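@channel anyone free to eyeball this complex?
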Amino acid sequence: MTRLRAQDLTLGYDDRAVVSGLDVDILDGKVTAIVGANACGKSTLLRGLARLLLPRAGAVHLDGTALADLRTLDIAKVLGLLPQTPVAPDGITVADLVSRGRYPHQGWFRRWTDDDQDAVARALDATGTTDLVDRPIRELSGGQRQRVWVAMALAQDTDLLLLDEPTTYLDINHQVELLRLLRRLNTDADKTIVVVMHDLNLACRFCDHVIAMADGAIVAEGAPGDVVTAELVAKVFGMACVVVPDPVAGTPMVVPA
Amino acid sequence: MPTTTFSAPSPTVGAQAALRATRRRRTRRAAVVTTALAAVAAALFVVTMMVGSFGLTAVEVVVSVLHLREDPAVDFIVRDLRLPTATTALAVGLALGASGTIFQQLLRNPLASPDFVGVTSGAGLAAVSGIVFLQAGGLAVSGFALGGALLAALLMYVLAWRDGVSGYRFILIGIGVLIFFDGLTGYVLSRAQLFEARQAMHWLTGSVGQAGPEELRLLLGALVLLLPTALLLQRQLRALELGDDAARALGNRTELSRAALLATAVVLVALAVAAAGPIIFVALVAGPVADRLLGPAAGGIPAAALVGAALLLTADLVAVHLLASPLPTGVVTGAVGAPYLLWLLATTNRRGAGG
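replying in thread with the prediction:
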C-alpha cells in the first residue's frame, strides 16, 4: 500500500531533464532515505514528489489522484515538505515561525483555533523547542534552528513529511539528534518520512528504506542491509570501499578502501 | 482524501501555556500599538486643521467636520479650505504606508519600497510627459501617473521574471528602471516650455495641497477597496516570506498571491502619487517603523498604513506651518528620509541582509 507514488516521472529545469522516466513508490509508515552523489537528481525528485516542480512527463499520485488534479491546499494538509533553504523573516520568533505551518488549515477569514493551538504545541513538544518560543530564530544554534523548521513542518500536521537535506549543514551530533527525532516521529506519530541526505552510513542506521540514485536514475532500492554493498557504492559515488556491519546497530557501514 | 489518520497525542501543558502566553503578548501588543497609532493619526488630522492664519480649537474643528453645528465662518475655513488638504495627507499617507510595507515584505528587503524600485518614477515620467507634451491638468495627470506606475511595475515584473520573481533581482532591475525613468524625465523637462516645466517641477516635488477633488475621491475609493484587500492578503504574505519553496509546500499559490499583492500595492502607490505627486520616503520608512513598534516580523499592514498617515500629516504640518516660508511636503519628507536611508544602507550591509 502506498499513498505517494511517482509513475514514469520526468523532471527538469529549463531545457534540461534531470530525472526521466522514474517509477517510485514511497512506502507508507516507513522512513525512506534518498541518497546519491551531488547533482544526481535526488533533490529534484523530492521537489517533484512535493509538486514544487511540475512533471515534464508522467505524474505523481497522492492517494490515487494525480497531484495536478488536486487543490494545492488539500495536498498541503496531507503532504508536507521542508525545503533545503527556507527563509526566516528578519527577527522572527520561534512561536511565530512554527505557527506559520498552520497556513493550509486556515481559511481567508478563519481565526486561530484550538486545533491550531494543539498542533503547534504538539510540534514544539515533539521537537523539544518549547523553551525557545520567544527566541528569535537568528539567535539559535544550527541544530536548534533546524529543529524549529521541522516543528513548522510538523505544525502543518501532515501524514507524509518530506525533508530536503535537513542534516547537510549540521555537525555530527546534531545530525544524529535530528535523525532520531525523525525516527521518533515515525514510530510515535506514524508519519511517513522521506529524507534526502548525503551520509550513507547515517541513512543506513536510521532509515527503513534506501533509494540510491545516480545520473537521474534509481540504481537500487530496498532495506539498507539488502542493497548497500561495495558494488552499489562504487556505482553511486564512484568510490572503492568495504562495507562492514555497524558495531552498534549492525546496519551496513561504508568504510573507504 | 483522508486527512490526519494517526491519533495525535495531546500536547503537554507546558507547551500549551508557553505558546498561549507568547501569542497573547503578541496580540495585545498589536492591538495597543495599532490603536495608539490610529489615535495619533486622528489627533494629527485634527491639529492640521486647527493651525493656520486663523487658529481654531480642536472642538471647533471636530464639530464642523462632523456637521454637529453650523457656523458659516468656521465651516468655510474647515470644510472648504483645510479639510481637503488634511484628508489628502491622511489618505496619501495611508496608501504609501500600506504599499511600502507590502513591497518590502514581498521582496524581503527594507530598501524595496515603491519609490526605490522605479514605480514612483514611472508615475512621475508619465505625469510629466502628460503635462509637458499634452498640457494635461487635473485628473488627466492622475491618469498618466497611474498608467505610468502600472507600466513600470509590469515592465519590472516581466524583466525580473525567472522561475518566479526573486527579491534581489527585482530590486536591481527596479533601480535600473528608476535611473532610466529619471533620466527620461529630465530629458522631457529639458524639452518643455517654461510654464509647463514649472508646473511639472512643482508636481514632481510632491505636495498634499495640490490634489483636486476628483483625485482625492479616486484615492479614497481605492483605499476603501484595497486596504481590506491588503488585510486579507496578509496571510499570503506571511507564507511567501518563508521563501517560495516553503510557501508552495504550505499550499500557497505563490505566483498568484504575489501578483495580487503587487497589484494592490502598485495601485495604492499610483493613486497616492497621482493625488500628491511623488512624495518620497514615506513608503520606505512606514513599514520598518511599524515593525519596530509591533515587534520583529509582525508585518502589520494597518500599523504601517497608520504610521504613513502620521508621518505625512506631520511632514505637512512642518512644511506649511512650522517653517518660515511654506515648502512642498515632499521637500520635508526628503530631508527627513535621506538620513534614514543612509542609516538603513549602512546597517543593512553590515548585517549582510542586503540581498
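from a first look: The radius of gyration of chain A is 18 Å.
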